[in-house]
């Protein structure tokens, strides 16, 4: 049977790669529970954070077993496969590619031998000093003759795994405490050896990570919604700079770096599920309040407020509540078009975005519309939607955006376009509105967005809007998605291994501004950014020029 690869095979324009978000990580320690199935459902709740590959690693105290493949969680795993993954603890991962190509060898969790057993690792975020880590690995022992890097894994997750495998310490816990302070950038890690589940969050806390309690165990996950789906009770956020170990003795917490909180504000705007809670603030409430603030800042006479499904819904509700304009759904989304293994005909390609969204003519015809979306990156999707709504008879189309103009790429886990591709660079807001074909365009202010999150400004990263990066960046030639592909050894495995990997517990031997111009400088594993499922469907006539 041919297993699905999870790739979007009906791209209208392969060169128009949509923004990608970071990844989802999950971990559970629960003796007596079906930890593989718990992890499966945890990843299912985190699917929005990564749809290119999925994997689960389990340990029964003597052996770590890993199964991973390309595709959605539901495509990679079934009951038979889950039944082979026994044990009392597990970690899981769903991925979008940032560093390294979209290949099986770059899927996670990774697996590596250590002086005392085995380690398996899952990573959400992007490291900014991956090139330095690579140099450190090569200087220490040369190009590895075994392990993930030797097999062709070109992610920074594989580098971290290899460095842990080379450690001289008495335990994996001590090795991690030695290595973690040297990692720079954004990272949330879940990892296991044969007996212990570990989790770590970078000192800036850029990406979310939460701790939950089961009746007979513990859970860590990228979002609190994953706790809900597996029946775990939220305990607290994992703190920035914190390293957690979970075993039969309970939960141990250690600090490996001084906390300097700078949580990603875009988690509140778009990335996280609306039912997630970040730092005590419900994401849904933040987005509704952004809509209310947007209505206060950019009022307009209209007949209907409607969202761009699905991410624009909470803000549209807030806009309608504040403005008093009726709320309605003017677009119907086909949720099942996103991934197919049948190449569409040219006629179907000409349908463009209508494969995903179709206007309700009886709702929009003759109406003055306020269309609310979470963000604009290149503008192609919004341009297509405006045109489609006008063709359906809309009298006016006023676009409202619940985040400020995106002007800078992200180096911490969101795969935005390069700065040159962002529509907000080189155009005024009025010019952007004209480019979209809208009657008017309004963005929420930075102050309004931050106020809606109820988070202190100094504890948020707003780099994609302001260009102020809280974590120092290396030179452009030390960043990039394919940073390590050129270093692949001719001895690295070129054939695809069996999707299921197993390791015994026995020790094994192992031999400035120019930076922001780099195309999406990421270094790990990510998820789909704003309109990622729609961008590829945009027709040529809706791809406008960014420049004046």
Automatic annotation (TrEMBL):
It is an enzyme of class 2 (transferase). Its EC number is 2.4.2.14. Keywords: 4Fe-4S, Glutamine amidotransferase, Glycosyltransferase, Iron, Iron-sulfur, Magnesium, Metal-binding, Purine biosynthesis, Transferase. Residues 517-526 have a biased composition (Polar residues). [4Fe-4S] cluster binds at residues 264, 410, 461, 464. One of its GO terms (biological process) is purine nucleobase biosynthetic process. Mg(2+) binds at residues 311, 373-374. GO terms for molecular function: 4 iron, 4 sulfur cluster binding; amidophosphoribosyltransferase activity; magnesium ion binding. Transmembrane segments: none annotated. This is Amidophosphoribosyltransferase.
């Amino acid at each position: 049977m041919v297993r699905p690869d999870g790739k979007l095979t009906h791209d209208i324009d392969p060169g128009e790669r949509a923004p990608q978000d970071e990844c989802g990580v999950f971990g559970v320690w629960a003796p007596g529970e079906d930890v593989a199935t718990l992890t499966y459902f945890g990843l299912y709740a985190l699917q929005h954070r990564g749809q290119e590959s999925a994997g689960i690693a389990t340990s029964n105290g003597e052996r770590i077993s890993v199964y991973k493949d390309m595709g959605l969680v539901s495509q990679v795993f079934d009951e038979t496969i889950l039944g082979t993954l026994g044990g009392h603890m597990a970690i899981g991962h769903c991925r979008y590619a940032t560093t390294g190509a979209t290949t099986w060898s770059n899927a996670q969790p990774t697996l590596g031998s250590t002086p005392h057993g085995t380690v398996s690792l899952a990573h959400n975020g992007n490291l900014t000093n991956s090139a330095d880590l690579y140099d450190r690995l090569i200087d220490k022992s040369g190009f590895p003759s075994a392990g993930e890097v030797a097999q062709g894994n070109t992610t920074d997750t594989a580098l971290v795994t290899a460095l842990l495998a080379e450690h001289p310490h008495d335990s994996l816990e001590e090795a991690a405490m030695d290595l973690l302070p040297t990692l720079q950038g954004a990272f949330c890690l879940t990892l296991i050896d044969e007996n212990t589940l570990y989790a770590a969050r970078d000192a800036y806390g850029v990406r979310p990570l939460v701790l939950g309690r089961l009746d007979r165990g513990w859970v860590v996950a990228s979002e609190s919604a994953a706790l809900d789906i597996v029946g775990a009770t939220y305990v607290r956020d994992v703190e920035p700079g914190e390293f957690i170990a979970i075993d039969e003795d309970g939960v141990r917490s250690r600090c490996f770096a001084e906390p300097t909180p700078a949580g990603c504000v875009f988690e509140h705007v778009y990335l996280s599920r609306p039912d997630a809670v970040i730092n005590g603030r419900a994401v849904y409430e933040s987005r509704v309040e952004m809509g209310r603030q947007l209505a206060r800042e950019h009022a307009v006479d209209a007949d209907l407020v409607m969202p761009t499904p699905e991410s624009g819904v909470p803000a549209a509700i807030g806009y309608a509540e504040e403005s008093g304009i009726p709320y309605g759904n003017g677009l119907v989304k086909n949720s099942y078009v996103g991934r197919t293994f049948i190449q569409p005909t040219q006629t179907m390609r000409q349908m463009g975005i209508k494969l995903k969204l179709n206007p309700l003519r009886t709702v929009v015809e003759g109406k003055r519309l306020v269309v609310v979306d979470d963000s604009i990156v290149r503008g192609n999707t919004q341009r297509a939607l405006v045109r489609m709504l006008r063709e359906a008879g809309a009298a006016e189309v006023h676009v409202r955006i619940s985040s400020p103009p995106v002007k800078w790429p992200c180096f911490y886990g969101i795969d935005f376009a390069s700065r040159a591709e962002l529509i907000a660079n080189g155009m005024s807001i009025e010019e952007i509105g004209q480019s979209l074909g809208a009657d008017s365009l309004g963005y929420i202010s930075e102050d309004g967005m931050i106020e809606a999150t109820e988070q202190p400004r100094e504890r948020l990263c707003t780099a994609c809007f302001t260009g102020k990066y809280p974590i120092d960046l290396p030179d452009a030639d030390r960043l990039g998605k394919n940073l390590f592909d050129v270093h692949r050894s001719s001895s690295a495995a070129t054939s695809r291994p069996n999707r299921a990997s197993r390791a015994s517990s026995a020790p094994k031997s192992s031999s400035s501004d120019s930076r922001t111009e780099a195309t999406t400088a990421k270094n790990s594993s990510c998820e789909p950014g704003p309109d990622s499922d729609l961008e590829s469907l945009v027709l040529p006539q809706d791809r406008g020029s960014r420049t004046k």
